[in-house]
Amino acid sequence: MNVENVTIVLVLLTAANSAPVIAKCVLGQAAAWPVDFGLVFVDGQPLFGRSKTFRGLVVAVAFAAGAAPMMGLAWRVGAATAAASMTGDLFSSFVKRRLRLAPSSMAPILDQLPEALFGTLAAACVLPLRPAEIAVCVAAFIVGQMVVSRAAYALGLRNEPY
Fold this sequence. Notes:
This protein is an all-alpha fold. Helices cover 62% and strands 0% of the residues. The chain has one domain. It contains 5 helices and no strands. The protein is globular and about 45 Å long.
């Protein structure tokens, strides 16, 4: 098990996924334009929902791109990891809307798995990660996100504990 590479992936995923929450705390609704432009899918539900914003995508990629050089990686690795993770987040949001779950509603595993898996697979294009290490990254991120989300809620940084 290459603990260093697993740690690097977890740092990049955490940077990407905490950046939108931090940006919302700092900026409120400023520049929070919805990624789906308010479009409605054929099922009558929003494509992604109002909580998925361009600001969130941009800051996620920027935070992870900034974190990557601190760990000896090219900024592009952080940016690609974050972009893939945010794609996973959009995918889970799309699925949640199809299931008619409200934006920001809790859907354990569905909320974390795609963003963890997509981001980890993107990082694995550069970092030599074996299947077991990919599984550890994904599992650790899922558990970590659940714990950190509750802590952020307790600190008033999130509106929901998930």
